Amino acid sequence: MRIGLALRELHRDETELADELLHLSERHAVDHEVYHLARDLAGWSADHVRRIAEIAGRYGEDLDPDAVGESGTAKRVRERVSDALDRSAPPGMALLRDLRTVYTMAQGVSVDWELLAQAAQGIRHHDLLDLTQHCHPENLRQARWANAKLKESATQVLVS
Amino acid sequence: MARTDRIAEPWGTRTPYGPGERWPVRVDQHLEEGLTEADVDRWVQSASTLHSNGDGLDLAVKDGRLVGVRGRAQDRVNHGRLGPKDLFGWQSVGSSDRLTQPLVGRDGRLVETTWDEAMELLVGRMQELLAERGASAVGFYTTGQLFLEEYYTLGVMAHAGIGTNHVDGNTRLCTATAAAALKESFGCDGQPGSYTDVDHADVIALFGHNMAETQTVLWTRILDRLAGPRPPQVLCVDPRLTPVARAATVHLAPRPGTNVALMNGLLHEVIAHGWVDEDYVAAHTVGFSELERQVREYTPEVVARICDVPEEDLRAAARLVGTADRLLSTVLQGFYQSHQGTASAVQVNNLHLVRGMLGAPGRGLLQMNGQPSAENTRECGADGDLAGFRNWSNAAHVADLARVWNVEPDAIPHWSPPTHAMQMMRYLEDGSMRMLWVQGTNPLVSLPELNRIRSVLTQERVFLVVQDIFLSETAQVADLVLPAATTGEKTGTFTNVDRTVHLSEKAVEPPGQARPDLDIFLDFARRMGFRDKDGGPLVHWHDPESAFAVWKECSRGRPCDYTALTYDKLRGGSGIQWPCDEEHPEGTERLYEGGRFFAAPDVAESYGRDLITGAPLEETEYRAMNPQGRAVLKAARYVPPHELPSERFPLQLVTGRTLYHFHTRTRTGRARQLHDAAPDVWVEVSQHDAGTHGLAEGDLAEVTTPRGRVEGRVRISGIRPGVLFLPFHYGYWDMPGGHAPDGHSRAANELTLTDWDPCSKQPVFKTAAARLRRLAASDGTPSPAPTTTGSAPVGPGAASVPPTRGGEASMSDELLPSDDLPTDDLPSDGGAR
């Protein structure tokens, strides 16, 4: 059985997605909706990471429930820098690139969840299935948000 | 006849009535001092434009100027009544500081110019930008106070003429969530209920809606029910002790920003007690099981903790709405201007859906508007939506609109949702937008985080055009100022909260060279040479009535169908509720009778959004979810606001309105009685917080948030402990600073944050972390807060506060049922069923 391995990969991918969302938020702090939503959605992944860590012990994995996160001071400094430097700069390709990264990472995570859900059904582990049923829809909403934001921003960035 | 001080008694004399009875007529009138009816040359039909209620009124004209106002007895909305803003606000029309000539910015000053030069400058700059940078470089920020004909013309011009997606109104600040919530639940905008539901309801629930101050005449209707036999019970959800709260059977004062938790708690109780209309839910809705699952964890214990309200009050509130036979709910800014605005307003829709409380007398829902013509901003597409509630993500709808406008479908921007006002500010900030044309709104006072807004709009590279009737704060920093005519100086129609369409006719000439907004738009369209696909003029109408005719065609077959309305039909009698078509020639009192919605995938105005992320749903998802076009029960979990109280900022700041003023006081601040009733900003504090901060009534205090500071005199009121209230009306046009604070900082939006509900894009005005400090002891000057309203004083100091009185200047006539009232044309309360 390789469920432990799958959980470990999912744990890593959700952690990276959370960090990428936080990165998106900080880099585009002057875009208020991106700033707030990306942070909120990073919180969803952080919650997924905790839930994965909680169940992973049963599959022989010892995973860090608090893998997402970083020093608050460093973050605040970076946010201020972003605020000071970028406010009046033209909307760069950077926003589209960063949203694209989040979108593709979230899609990857979605595949991870699908795989795990399939396995959970195969072995009839209801706790594991519940986990996927809680987290996967939220993951899809993260991807849909990034996609929607891309569509909404693309025209202004590319034609202005 | 009674003579009443309508500043001291904003709702006037009671005319009690019972359930199912007709609301008695009471005709309110105010004329310039020294004049009587015999002095009036003529009366000209209009309706109120200083709030969203849509009270029918007649303007009194003498010697070519306005001299007074009288309620229209035959109008279904007000049955003759008027509120203080209606009675006194008209005086601003004749104010000596009206804009009378176009102004152009030269060397940092505004200098007078001619219309021809002004329009050539506007058209020249527009064409330059379109050539250099394309349509995404220009945007329009309009209002909720123009007429339907003007919005429609603006929408056609901006969407099909210029081809920009950057079109919005200040309705984004007041009514965007009403529209968004209706779209989420019913697939389409459109007010379900009718004011006449007040006449039948046995329970009236007001969610974040201080109706007593924002729609005084509708509140008068409720007061008359409360004074009559078998009165309704009232539920009030508001952190302030408003007049509504004082009249309530149950008052919940939740912690700001927790409305979704509160609503989920009420829904939890309704479901747990079996108060659900299961037949209705099964026949007319989708999504019940998800809603049931979502609210399961919101037990009264949990919700009492999140919202900090007593558990027994929650249970009592749930019993009220759960066991009502005829439940009327109204919703406004307390819900809308929150980080989960749409999610919370949608839960009120859900309450009505699970209880089957729609489309029957007394079973109504009013997602309120804040402005007189906000409904038209929405239906005509001046808020960026496509005209006639068409769906931007439905290709057939876009093609249909293209047919109406005789343009190619791809000439209409529809690649993404329209750009909302706050996003336009961002595009102006980052330099990708270079021109903003503002009409009838004052973002330098009304948008959040004013320091930022000032820096955005005063940039050298931004060409700012302001079309207004006074030199507002925003107009002062404009590159071009276009003087406009106002209500009473131009003709047009507008539609109130409950879909009642009124005609407002020209009574007097505008001052100097001021022109009706429609004329400005038509002139612009002509100079720009906008063409349809056959080379004919895109904007081919020439006056209000011909504009109304083309709008009627655009609305044909849509939920907001105007096709059976004409100016003649609106003349003389009462306003009429849309849809008004061949099938319903007298209009339609209530939408959604029999559980029939405009939600079928081919009909719906919107496929909805994710309530938390705001991401639009795709057509395929909507088709799968709701193939039969039922109402959608959309669940949402509670999430805390982004800015929570902290050690440095331990309190929560709520901004809002007061009864005597409208928006940034451009009109109400110029009516003596209204100005004197609430002449300056104040800081509302609970007794508890006053105690811990050593504050007494009338002390000078400072409120600080991470964005700025505001000074004002303290009013100790019945507001929830831990919460501060500031009225947002006060800016700087009548202060030394002119457009910005000059030492004395008093605009509430200096303090608010840049954040919005991701679904409706309505900014958050109800939760900012703040701190409070005493600056100076009272010098005996009372706090300028009115005593008649939600800011009424409480506690030991209350007795020494002089009551708000208007005196002789505010005495108004009330023709009561005991008087000789006209009986021949009493109101017909609504349209055909």
How is the biggest beta sheet of chain A arranged?
none
Any guess at the CATH architecture of the largest domain in chain B? 3-Layer(aba) Sandwich
Question: Could you give the count of β-strands of chain A?
Answer: 0
The assigned CATH architecture of chain A is Up-down Bundle
Using the coordinates above, name the CATH class of chain A.
Mainly Alpha
Task: Please give the domain count of chain B.
Answer: 4
Helical content of chain B stands at 25-40%
Termini of chain B, distance in Å?
Answer: 36 Å
Q: SS-based structural class of chain A?
A: mainly alpha
**Coarse structural class of chain B:** alpha/beta
Order of helices and strands of chain A: HHHHH
Principal-axes shape call of chain B: globular
* Number of helical stretches of at least 4 residues of chain B: 27
Number of E strands of chain B: 29
Major interchain interface with per-chain residue totals:
A-B, 28 and 31 residues
* CATH topology grouping of chain A: Ferritin
Measured by DSSP, the beta-strand proportion of chain A falls in under 5%
Poorly predicted spans of chain B: none
Largest sheet of chain B: 7 strands, mixed
* Strand proportion of chain B: 15-25%
Cofactor (chain B): [4Fe-4S] cluster; Mo-bis(molybdopterin guanine dinucleotide)
GO biological process, one term (chain B): nitrate assimilation
Protein name (chain B): Molydopterin dinucleotide binding domain-containing protein
Biased composition (Low complexity) (chain B): 777-804
Written description of the protein model:
The complex is a heterodimer of chains A (160) and B (833). Chain A has one domain (3-159): Up-down Bundle (Ferritin), CATH 1.20.1260. Chain A is 81% helix and 0% strand. Chain A has 5 helices and no strands. Chain A has helices at residues 3-27, 32-56, 72-86, 93-123, 126-159. The radius of gyration of chain A is 17 Å and the shape is elongated. The model of chain A has no long low-confidence stretch (mean pLDDT 90). Chain B is α/β, with parallel strands linked by helices and 833 residues long. Chain B folds into 4 domains: 17-96, N-terminal domain of TfIIb, CATH 2.20.25; 103-175 and 373-595, Rossmann fold; 176-368 and 600-632, Dimethylsulfoxide Reductase, domain 2 (3-Layer(aba) Sandwich); 651-802, Barwin-like endoglucanases (Beta Barrel). In chain B, the strands form 6 sheets. A 7-stranded mixed sheet of chain B has the order 7-6-18-17-16-8-9, sandwiched between helices. In chain B, helix 3 packs across helix 23. The model of chain B has no long low-confidence stretch (mean pLDDT 96). Chains A and B meet through helix 2 and helix 5 of A and helix 18 of B.
